[in-house]
Amino acid sequence: MTYATYTQQAIPSSSVDEQALAQAELYSHLKTQAEAVAPTQDPLTSRDRRIIGEIIEVQPESVRTIWIEGGITVWVQFVEGGRLPFDRNCFAARVAEVKATLPETPRERNERLSNELKKACTVFGLYHGEIDWLGFNTKLYRDGHFVGFVGCDQQGWYARPRQYGVNRMAASAEQVIGLLGVRAAVAA
């Protein structure tokens, strides 16, 4: 009588590598699809990450998110995994200290100025052309008619009614638009 002997063959390592690669690709695809269907909103701005990074002495890009647990503990979650707990009051005090000393980046400055200009344009019923982000200036229009130039530099907000001429300076976008002789829009 003959007996059959079965042995288990080893799976080639290249097959295992291909399997792991295919699995990673599938997870990546599923994550992309989930993001397309329900995009997650990042509650932290780049400035928030810079502040947190300064406090706990890590690169800002390594901070994923933060949350408060039980009104007592602030948790900082990292991109590569892991988290750190902090007392809420101590963390808040450090945030205030760092905020006061952390310089504004050019992008943050442009976002702040853009928001201020947008609000001022709404008050006066104006819209602006494309913003030159490097020097932060643009043209203002009302009902398709050119109103003037407006911008902001180291001295503050400025406006002028023509391409060439003297800049009129003011402390805010709303004030400088008023210097162009534009009256606030009246609701009908």
Structural summary, described in words:
The chain is an alpha+beta fold. The chain has five helices and eight strands; from the N terminus they run H-H-E-E-E-H-H-E-E-E-E-E-H. The strands form two sheets. Strands 4-5-6-7-8 form a five-stranded antiparallel sheet. Strands 1-2-3 form a three-stranded antiparallel sheet. A hairpin with a 4-residue loop joins strand 2 (73-78) and strand 3. Helix 2 packs across helix 3. The longest helix is centred in the N-terminal third of the chain and has 25 residues, at 13-37. It starts with 12 loop residues before the first helix and ends in a 10-residue tail after the last helix.
User: Helical stretch count?
Assistant: 5
Low-confidence stretches: none
Number of strands: 8
User: What composes the largest sheet?
Assistant: 5 strands, antiparallel
Helix content: 25-40%
**In whole angstroms, how far apart are the ends?**
104 Å
Q: Based on helices, strands and strand pairing, what is the structural class?
A: alpha+beta
Radius of gyration, in angstroms, nearest whole number: 28 Å
- Mean pLDDT, to the nearest integer, reads 85
Along the chain, the helix and strand elements come as: HHEEEHHEEEEEH
Specify the overall morphology. elongated
With strands numbered from the N-terminus, the spatial order across the biggest sheet is 4-5-6-7-8
The proportion of strand residues reads: 15-25%
Keywords:
188 residues, alpha+beta, 5-stranded antiparallel β-sheet, 8 strands, 40% helix
